[in-house]
């Protein structure tokens, strides 16, 4: 029999039994779609979850500071240099690095002359917001333009803005701090603000010019791409810092407990997703085996007639094996089409650039898996059908 005839007959047989095959076809289609989506989008989704969720964002953030300086007979407070920040940013898998200076208990004067105590004044660079996963609830956060221009602007924590301005809109207002007026350009808020709700933030370059007793950046925040990168980055940091500046008493603080919890949770989520996809595909394979075995039993007389008019064992085996392949490949192709739609939606949702090469590789893997599934599930019924005795098959009722 010619291959195109064999394929046409097998496909027609699968369509004829479509009601019986529907459940199996859906399982294979969904399983294939899940496999392609999980592999294609897994790493990109993980990186975006790192950026968007504070629990995981906290797990990927490393804090650097100096401690026990008296032990090293250091009188002048130790600070981090701009060259150190540049070197830290060159470590592989580092997403952002921020220089920050903490100055506690600053008096702020509102426009009506009232004195408000800010819990802390933070002088930061433009990378602080990204390194700590922060966002404004009003206005905007200062960036490279304000930092490079050494501008007199500030960002208030949500609670501090409420204390100073009440229910008035804070953005555009002026506050008086250490003999200078600062224009409020944003209010910081959200679920991950925590104690920063009572902080005032100004550009670190402005603090250098206008804040008395400013002694440089006392802290550095390093944010990694994903939680898998934290351990390697933390190990590399001391060497990089000591290569660029004196670093007695350097402390590298990694949230190991949170990191362990996040990685454990992520591992179990990935495990159960892959288990669900694998189980779906395995159930699809068992469904193909069951359908083909039932087909052999119900078509025993047909097999006997074909053998009686000259069909060889090989012909019978090829026909049933091709039917099994059609039953796995056709749903797999529909699953690939479905996966493309899901991948496009996820890419748009998480603002991810789709890796076409990886997607095509996953498509190839899905088709290969469907072929293996069809052959594996259809081989035993095909062999059984090909080995039937002609007389027994013709006498079967």
What does this entry look like structurally?
This protein has helices at 3-16, 18-52, 54-59, 82-89, 128-132, 144-148, 158-165, 204-210, 230-244, 256-298, 300-308, 313-349, 356-386, 390-395, and strands at residues 61-66, 94-109, 115-124, 135-139, 153-157, 174-177, 180-189, 199-203, 219-224, 250-253. The chain has 397 residues and is α+β, with helices and mostly antiparallel strands. Strands 1, 2, 3, 4, 5, 6, 7, 8, 9 and 10 form a ten-stranded mixed beta sheet that branches. A hairpin with a 2-residue loop joins β6 and β7 (180-189). α4 runs antiparallel to α9, α10 packs antiparallel against α12 and α10 (256-298) runs parallel beside α13. The longest helix has 43 residues, at 256-298.
């Amino acid at each position: 029999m010619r291959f195109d005839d064999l394929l046409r007959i097998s496909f027609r047989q699968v369509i004829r039994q479509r009601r019986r095959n529907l459940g199996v076809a859906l399982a294979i289609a969904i399983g294939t779609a899940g496999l392609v989506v999980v592999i294609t989008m897994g790493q990109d989704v993980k990186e975006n979850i790192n950026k968007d969720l504070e629990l995981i964002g906290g797990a990927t953030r490393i804090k650097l500071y100096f401690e026990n300086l008296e032990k090293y007979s250091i009188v002048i407070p130790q600070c981090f240099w701009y060259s150190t920040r540049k070197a830290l940013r060159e470590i592989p898998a580092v997403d952002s690095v921020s220089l920050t200076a903490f100055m506690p208990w600053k008096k702020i004067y509102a426009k009506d002359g009232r004195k408000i105590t800010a819990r802390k004044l933070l002088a930061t660079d433009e990378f602080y917001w990204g390194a700590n996963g922060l966002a404004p609830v009003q206005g905007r956060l200062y960036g490279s333009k304000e930092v490079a221009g050494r501008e007199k602007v500030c960002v208030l924590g949500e609670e501090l803005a409420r204390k100073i301005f009440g229910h008035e809109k804070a953005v555009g207002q002026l506050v008086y701090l250490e003999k200078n007026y600062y224009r409020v350009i944003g209010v910081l808020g959200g679920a991950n603000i925590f104690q920063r709700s009572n902080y005032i933030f100004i550009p670190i370059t402005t603090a250098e010019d206008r804040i008395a007793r400013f002694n440089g950046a006392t802290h550095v925040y390093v944010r990694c791409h994903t939680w898998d990168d934290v351990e390697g980055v933390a190990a590399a940091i001391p060497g990089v810092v000591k290569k660029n500046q004196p670093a007695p008493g350097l402390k590298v603080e990694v949230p190991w407990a949170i990191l362990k919890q996040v990685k454990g949770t992520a591992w179990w989520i990935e495990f159960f997703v892959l288990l669900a996809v694998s189980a779906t595909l395995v159930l699809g394979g068992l469904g193909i085996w069951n359908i083909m075995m039932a087909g052999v039993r119900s078509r025993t007389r047909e097999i006997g007639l074909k053998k009686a008019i000259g069909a060889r064992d090989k012909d019978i085996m090829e026909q049933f094996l091709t039917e099994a392949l059609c039953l796995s490949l056709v749903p797999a192709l529909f699953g690939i089409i479905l996966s493309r739609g899901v991948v496009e939606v996820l890419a748009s949702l998480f603002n991810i650039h789709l890796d076409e090469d990886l997607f095509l590789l996953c498509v190839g893997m899905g088709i290969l898996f469907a072929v293996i599934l069809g052959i594996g599930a259809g081989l035993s019924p095909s062999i059984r059908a090909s080995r039937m005795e002609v007389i027994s098959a013709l006498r079967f009722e």
